[in-house]
Design goal:
The complex is a heterodimer of chains A (about 280) and B (about 170). Chain A has about 280 residues and is α+β, with helices and mostly antiparallel strands. Chain A is about 30% helix and about 25% strand. Classes of the chains: A alpha+beta (about 280), B mainly alpha (about 170).
């Protein structure tokens, strides 16, 4: 009887072990980033508040570099603003009879400024947590950029925090094109380095120069057209010879991400409604 | 008994906080990640029922997973480590009944046995963790570098912090 009891107890811990291993494997295998509950991610209120408290201290460490980036970006924008102002003036002169203003028609986008409270770059699937959530108007599938370029896309939204799928995540494919041409492909991270990614599915006749800028194509409502993403380093021949693959140096420095802008567009629902009938095996943003 | 439970509960909260706020961001050369939190699991009393040890391991792994968005990876590896604690210790210390204090440490097991116990389980942990990670991008050189780098870093950290805290306790006594 005692032996039997002992045997049963031994068997019981094997059973417990099997149950835990099964649970772990199940949540590991069906790790679909779009179907996780908010509690099980870093956007959950408890997890996020821990990161929020930490970030209130650590966010000061990168300020010098971020300031430099902002100054450079500011200079670029100022130059652009001057160029645009000149252009608008000349357009206005040409169309003075027409009452329509050009600028208003071009800005259906608004930004929500968020601060990064948790970020990873060395895992195979990287995510970013920011301190803006549903209460601030963030919705899933909104695009996220910083002062240098594209960062990712909003994935899971909690009441005050949300999780972003980083560009450094193979679940995220971004439709991009070479600046100045209409040749487009899709950008995907290959897990090698947090500084580079691959631009795949380019047509074979693509003409490029190392150093060319890659921008978003604007083929979806998530990112407006022309947001910088990276620069071309070299050609990278993939297994499939029908298409061309380029290695891209990403402009966003994911190692010291601090403030990001979430792109809110009122058109997103309208465009999604129109595209609802199209069934694609993999969603591109 | 209750004192021990409270002590390990506080220890759990502290080690999770330290891991997610400090050590998760302390990645050396892009390969060596300190898995410091397994220290808690390795320090659990050896007299603890196997089922409870497995539960503790699973919960620790899951908590770390939720914080670092790696659902399932640490939970699986921690459960396996919790199950392997006794067999590994048996390799180096066959007479477990002789222990005066059930908590494995430098003092109870002696430095040689304790360090061997630490390094073996750390290497097993890092191997399991990075093997799971390699299911997404298989890169043998990176895999080996990750396992070696993380094992060494984790082992050094745990051994160092363990010896500091152990000495303090002795002084107090």
């Amino acid at each position: 009887m005692r032996n039997l009891l002992h045997f049963f107890l031994k068997y019981l811990s094997w059973l417990v072990f099997t149950i835990y291993v099964t649970i772990s494997v199940v949540i590991l295998v069906k790790n679909n980033p779009y179907q996780q509950h908010v509690i099980m991610t870093s956007a959950g209120s408890m997890t996020a508040s821990v990161y929020y408290a930490t970030n209130s201290v650590t966010s000061y460490f990168n300020l010098h570099d971020i300031n430099e980036d902002l100054q450079r970006r500011n200079a670029d924008l100022e130059a652009e603003a001057i160029a645009l102002r000149t252009q608008i003036r000349s357009l206005r002169e040409q169309l003075y009879a027409d009452s329509m203003t050009v600028v208003e028609a071009l800005s259906p986008y608004t930004f929500i400024i968020g601060s990064v409270i948790n970020n990873s770059i060395y895992r195979p699937y990287n995510y970013i947590t920011v301190d803006k959530g549903e209460a601030d108007g963030v919705k899933p599938e909104m695009g996220v950029v910083d002062q240098n370029g594209v960062v990712g896309i909003v994935n899971i939204v909690g009441p005050h925090f949300s999780r972003i799928i980083s560009l450094l995540n193979p679940n995220f494919r971004l439709s991009c094109k070479l600046r100045g041409s209409d040749v487009f492909g899709s950008l995907v991270w290959d897990g090698k380095s947090p500084e580079t990614a691959l631009l795949e599915e380019l047509p074979k006749h693509t003409v490029y120069q190392p150093g060319d800028t890659i921008v978003t194509s604007g083929y979806s409502a998530v990112f407006p057209e022309g947001i910088p993403v990276g620069t071309v380093i070299s050609a990278h021949r993939g297994a499939d010879d029908n298409f061309f693959t380029l290695r891209i140096k990403l402009l966003t420095d994911f190692a010291r991400l601090s403030t990001v802008r979430i792109i809110a567009t009122p058109l997103i629902e309208e465009i999604q409604e129109v595209e609802q009938d199209i069934q694609e095996p993999q969603t591109k943003f | 008994m209750t004192k021990l439970v409270i002590k390990f509960a506080i220890f759990f909260v502290l080690i999770v906080l330290v891991q997610v706020t400090v050590f998760n961001h302390l990645v050396l050369f892009g390969v060596a990640v300190p898995m410091f939190f397994i220290w808690w699991l390795l320090r659990l009393p050896l007299t603890l029922n196997a089922n409870w040890a497995l539960t503790c391991g699973f919960l620790l792994g899951l908590t770390i997973d939720v914080f670092s968005d790696t659902l399932g990876m640490n939970a699986l590896a921690c459960t396996i480590i919790a199950a392997l604690r006794h067999p590994v210790l048996h390799l180096y210390f066959p007479r477990e009944e002789d222990l005066t204090d059930p908590e494995p440490s430098f003092r109870t097991l002696g430095p040689a046995v304790y360090l061997k116990y630490l390094i073996t389980l750390t290497v097993i942990y890092c191997t399991i963790y990075f093997m799971i990670e390699a299911m997404s991008f298989f890169n043998p050189i990176r895999l080996i570098m990750c396992i070696t780098g993380s094992s060494i870093l984790t082992f050094i950290l745990i051994a160092a912090i363990d010896s500091i805290t152990g000495k303090q306790r002795e002084k107090r006594l």
